[in-house]
Known about the structure:
Six copies of one chain form a homohexamer.
Chain A: H1 11-27, E1 32-37, H2 39-42, H3 51-70, E2 74-79, H4 82-91, E3 98-99, E4 102-103, H5 107-130, E5 136-140, E6 147-151, E7 159-165, H6 168-175, E8 179-183, E9 185-187, E10 193-196, H7 198-209, E11 213-218, E12 236-238, H8 239-247, H9 255-267, E13 272-277, H10 283-289, E14 296-299
Parallel strand pairs in A: 1-2, 1-11, 2-8, 5-8, 7-10, 11-13, 12-14
Antiparallel strand pairs in A: 3-4, 6-7, 9-10, 13-14
Helix pairs in contact in A: 4-5, 7-9, 8-9
Amino acid sequence: VSAVVPxxxxxxxxxxxxxxxxxxxxxxxxxxxxxxxxxxxxxxxTSGGGRPAREATLASFAEDVVLMSSVGMRPVVVHGGGPxxxxxxxxxxxxxxxxxxxxxxxxxxxxxxxxxxxGKVNRDIVGAVNVHGPLAVGLSGxxxxxxxxxxxxxxxxxxxxxxxxxxxILERLLAQDLIxxxxxxxxxxxxxxxxxxxxxxxxxxxEVLGAEKLVYLTNVEGLRRRADDxxxxxxxxxxxxxxxxxxxxxxTEGMIPKAAACVRAVRAGVRQAHILDGRLPHALLLEIxxxxxxxxxxxx
Amino acid sequence: VSAVVPxxxxxxxxxxxxxxxxxxxxxxxxxxxxxxxxxxxxxxxTSGGGRPAREATLASFAEDVVLMSSVGMRPVVVHGGGPxxxxxxxxxxxxxxxxxxxxxxxxxxxxxxxxxxxGKVNRDIVGAVNVHGPLAVGLSGxxxxxxxxxxxxxxxxxxxxxxxxxxxILERLLAQDLIxxxxxxxxxxxxxxxxxxxxxxxxxxxEVLGAEKLVYLTNVEGLRRRADDxxxxxxxxxxxxxxxxxxxxxxTEGMIPKAAACVRAVRAGVRQAHILDGRLPHALLLEIxxxxxxxxxxxx
Amino acid sequence: VSAVVPxxxxxxxxxxxxxxxxxxxxxxxxxxxxxxxxxxxxxxxTSGGGRPAREATLASFAEDVVLMSSVGMRPVVVHGGGPxxxxxxxxxxxxxxxxxxxxxxxxxxxxxxxxxxxGKVNRDIVGAVNVHGPLAVGLSGxxxxxxxxxxxxxxxxxxxxxxxxxxxILERLLAQDLIxxxxxxxxxxxxxxxxxxxxxxxxxxxEVLGAEKLVYLTNVEGLRRRADDxxxxxxxxxxxxxxxxxxxxxxTEGMIPKAAACVRAVRAGVRQAHILDGRLPHALLLEIxxxxxxxxxxxx
Amino acid sequence: VSAVVPxxxxxxxxxxxxxxxxxxxxxxxxxxxxxxxxxxxxxxxTSGGGRPAREATLASFAEDVVLMSSVGMRPVVVHGGGPxxxxxxxxxxxxxxxxxxxxxxxxxxxxxxxxxxxGKVNRDIVGAVNVHGPLAVGLSGxxxxxxxxxxxxxxxxxxxxxxxxxxxILERLLAQDLIxxxxxxxxxxxxxxxxxxxxxxxxxxxEVLGAEKLVYLTNVEGLRRRADDxxxxxxxxxxxxxxxxxxxxxxTEGMIPKAAACVRAVRAGVRQAHILDGRLPHALLLEIxxxxxxxxxxxx
Amino acid sequence: VSAVVPxxxxxxxxxxxxxxxxxxxxxxxxxxxxxxxxxxxxxxxTSGGGRPAREATLASFAEDVVLMSSVGMRPVVVHGGGPxxxxxxxxxxxxxxxxxxxxxxxxxxxxxxxxxxxGKVNRDIVGAVNVHGPLAVGLSGxxxxxxxxxxxxxxxxxxxxxxxxxxxILERLLAQDLIxxxxxxxxxxxxxxxxxxxxxxxxxxxEVLGAEKLVYLTNVEGLRRRADDxxxxxxxxxxxxxxxxxxxxxxTEGMIPKAAACVRAVRAGVRQAHILDGRLPHALLLEIxxxxxxxxxxxx
Amino acid sequence: VSAVVPxxxxxxxxxxxxxxxxxxxxxxxxxxxxxxxxxxxxxxxTSGGGRPAREATLASFAEDVVLMSSVGMRPVVVHGGGPxxxxxxxxxxxxxxxxxxxxxxxxxxxxxxxxxxxGKVNRDIVGAVNVHGPLAVGLSGxxxxxxxxxxxxxxxxxxxxxxxxxxxILERLLAQDLIxxxxxxxxxxxxxxxxxxxxxxxxxxxEVLGAEKLVYLTNVEGLRRRADDxxxxxxxxxxxxxxxxxxxxxxTEGMIPKAAACVRAVRAGVRQAHILDGRLPHALLLEIxxxxxxxxxxxx
Lengths: 300, 300, 300, 300, 300, 300
């Protein structure tokens, strides 16, 4: 980015970018966008990016969310935190156990997951946003009945499924121009907490809020028609095509919950779903306020 | 402009322009800007620009005003129309008479001026804006007591001075996201109409509205420290310097009412005044939503 | 009128007039009345009444409108201005051309018509009302999308028909106790202006506003059953009878657009339409606030 | 009145009465007027007017109050009922006892006075008004803390003086376009009721409400400069002159509490006080909505 | 009651009473309860309780109503006053005449009944409540069209039946946290007043207000399955059983209008009806805010 | 508690408790109460009470808070969690280091403290409340700029002091009848988090909210004049006496921050501060809704 010297840009270029962006700003004024922010998206464990890179990406993400909010959009951030949970378990000497790719969660593991998600990852995102002003409010799905959960059918302990989303607390915070940041812990009517898959939870929240957009920030550029071919990036698709891509194995494992949530969301009234590369600086701004966009757009 | 191909711009360039503009959009949300649009600015009589050029500039101006309104600013357009008045007088075989550079205005001339300003120039601007939607409402200073006038002391017939501005009708229209377009005819309590200098009227309207900005669109790039030296363009100045420039003859004749109105406005509470080149496409957007700006900025 | 000495009226007479009027005042509180004010009504070209008489009638009309507004009615004035357009065309040396009784309107004629209607007749009415306070606001049908027009089928150039009326700007002004005065220029979606028949436009405005009353001020006492017989004045009629009178030739030419607009309006929800003699002082007050009324009343 | 045939009145006469009245209607819109209605005013014991006359006058009074309310005034009726209290005491075989012109009131007499004022006179007025619609609400000064009273210093038993007026209940009813009718019983903080002079109470209510007008309906034409000379009727006066007339014995006994209340009220902010002949049909309308008025007007 | 020393109560007892009551307080917040208060309930003619006892009971009743209002319930008091009417008639030497258990009411008797109900009983209740603050407002069914009545079919003179209840005035007073106290006089459209059975009127008011509860305060403990057997007190019943009890003669005469009104009310949407012993101190609080309740509860 | 059988309580006892409590309920309606809930209060490390007792106390506390909220009070819960932080540090093999009785907090310890307070203790309280409905919302002082902190002067690492409290987010949640539960982590403008003493933070929150009450739930009965003498419990005191007790060593160490916060709060506008025994079931209800209260009350 350092090569760009905005002050010296041709005024005509600036004028065109502005004239292109302003109608989007108007169109999305007051509209809700749910952004799923995952541990992988900001800190890919396989890359060489260490702490500074991770923090730069988090700061860019936070700036985008604040800018969107400043021009009237109503962002809701939903996040997971798998890697960080693993880290603390390791420090505590606990051995993670997976079944069908899902973490088996006993009471102690749930306590750990909850402390990490609510007390650490959530706090880090809230903190990065609030550098720009008192805007973000961290929430757990347990607060004010936000996410009602029940045990997952696969008997994974305190791994839960979303039963219902009560958007009242989100709507109230949004009405006050605050930015909710949601850790995906749910609870059942007896008060028992459950750990919830964040991709699915983000979709459910977007549905219930009647969001204009549901955005997944990932560590890939978008969906590809051929996994190994960067030129096969899908720019625009729809629910039917996406379902087909899931069925025929085109999509790799990590993409499946995101793709499934996109399909479900656009069919349930969300206007557009996006899968973006969270490592690209200002990915959100570019996707939302330019005609070309970046990443994969899913329409109904 | 045709050389710019926005679709191919580097995403990083776009991202930076957006990230730079969004805070201005937020900052000016809900703020009033009074834009003086003069006959000269859109149709310079000395240039070779014919009707099509004039119309292109008017269309670009109208688009800027609509875009500003779409992202929450509250533009008020104030306009004159000297050249067009002259045209109709010529057609009717009347000889204009000037005294100290001001048009002497008998009852018939006033009728003509009013028909041209309210029934033609005002209509043209309203029409150009309303291509984008039912946004503009044409007003004369006579409507709802907007501009109370009295006869000019130089005995110029029905040339008047602003005595008072009652902003109620403007505030009501602005509150409904409409764009007032004001022809500068005023009236006295007995109902007698007067023709008012539009530069002065624009300043008075900006003062009374407590506008954030007062912008003069002219047919020059901005003020110059040396009339013949394009490199002496003044980017930023203040009331004191401007007063000195008027006193020592630096400013040419046509700039004096604008400069005087700028000085008065910033001293009366308007935050910033601008003198821009109305011939530059999207001059308003560039001045308001980029850090560098174009033209001359006057601060208190 | 000079023969009346109100101060000496028997108190019982006054008390009875008041006790009769007050229920009407209550009944029409907050109700919209659309008043069509035509050039003929205030300045009959065939009569010997010169400027002073014309002005006296305009002043009486303005006073009535202000009084009605002061006791809670919501008057909307709609006006034409045929004679005044003709005058300016003559001054400019243009020959009016009529086809089937409608003026053929080229671009230059439209410019002239618009200048006269919006920049002169409208201004004169606004000025006469605003002698009583900052109440009237002049509008053209182009403002805020008020009247959408399309070309008349008879290929008369820029003579238009009403396609749609968007009452938002009228409703907003009425809600603020202002008195809209509408010049009947409309525009199509591309921004092209058209000259519209004022009688028809007044009816369309009344329909869309759900007006309580639609009043035509004319230069006749009302409709007559036999054109030459003053004693055949129609006091009360309805849509069916009026249609019959149009069909059998009872009505003279100038009355037909008014009669047709009355029929259409009362069938579209306007409660009552009236055809009054605009030359009678305080004709509006007498028709609205007394039991007997003056002129012809059309009910559904 | 029967000699008046309004239907045949010259339209010019009607127009002038209306044009004269409408500005008053506008001016008094939303304004509070306190009307003291006394037993004497509607049922003069010395005249030969029997029940039917009394009822006609009550009906005319009720119609005026309803008409005033219908054009936006906010009338509050305050009433006494001396003669009617005397009647019931006589039926019950109780001997009225007066000291310095004031009725000595033991517990039983208070019970009787309260039953008559609240349970009979108040009901009769409410009933006469409500023939026109569900408008009037009867109140006693005991309701919602309206009139706080204390014992009269002359040791007259349960005769009280006004200590404070809490207008909240009146303001609430007026805000809902209801017409409060107040019987002048007050109570002290322990709940003990007192009979209050209605002339004084009406003045206190007008003061506290910041009324535009305080009107006493009496059985005289107005105040006279010489008691026996009908031509000496005082049309307009002020507080100082009225005080002088009380001091020098010009005013007869029954007028003194009214005159004193008028003086006090106009000095405490009530704009105008009136003493009218309640026997004149539509006396209220004539006083309020015509330039000449009837009766005596007291200004500050 | 003097044996209870609350200050010394075990904290655990207090805590349990509070924890039990609070949910009822929340549940009934903002809910309307219509309380029928009868002459018998406060002054049982058969008991030896004289004036002091009667006043103690009235004071306890008033305190309950004020406390209910203070924790958000919206009580409406409806009352009769048979015994007091009889007293005044006796003093005036009039012989009461009954037909089928209903008082035959000539014009003079109606005047007496109205004076007693509106001018005495109503005043006594309002006074007892207002010892606690300016809360109660006395109303007659004639005020603001509250109760429209028509003559009773049995030709009993001015004894009327409820034709319609217009709750507007009650709703307005309740919205302002005032306590309406209603004397059951109604009027017909011509303004003629009628005396109405208070038990029936209370039921009609509760229906129209959509009350949560309708409570009859009586001088019995509640309904009994066997008239002479105190142990047969009915704690809970419903409309069907109550109808059966009326049909088979289980209920004594005075209970029948109350029982019939309860049945009708719960079938018309009132959630619960109660018949309580008004002589029990704080009977209302105990019934409403404790689980056990006192008296007979009728549910749909 | 099991010995109490509320259903069998004498109605008179119930009536008196209710009649005593209702005025308090009214008085505290809409009032804010800040309740400091500490780890010690619910889980005294020195007692033998294990998990079940701790949970019973938490459940009783949660029920009280919900009941208070249900009758209109606006509770804000502020909590610490020292013992639980120690537990996790031990599990992670970290050695706590104290200086002048305050925990020295390095970056890792801060992370741990934040996870425990925000991700565990806060969650447990929120969960216990939300068994009764979606009422509680967990907050950290970092959310929406709630607590601005700076480093403690004693160089204890990330131990902070309260610099400012921005109550906006609390007021918004309270306005929606939600119950904020605040973990006392603050942040400075750069986004750095700090651990804050919860006693002090509770006082600062109460001050800024203008709370009616500030309540410390502790594991003692209240303050004692002589540490070893249970009969020396202080029922009522004020700021001056409390200051003296701190100065002369009467108060034991753990009580000092609470006592100091009480003194400061009542001097800064909080009406009453309380130190209660959190182990007593329904301690909050008893203190707030009974005349006698439990524990120590501090008034200004």
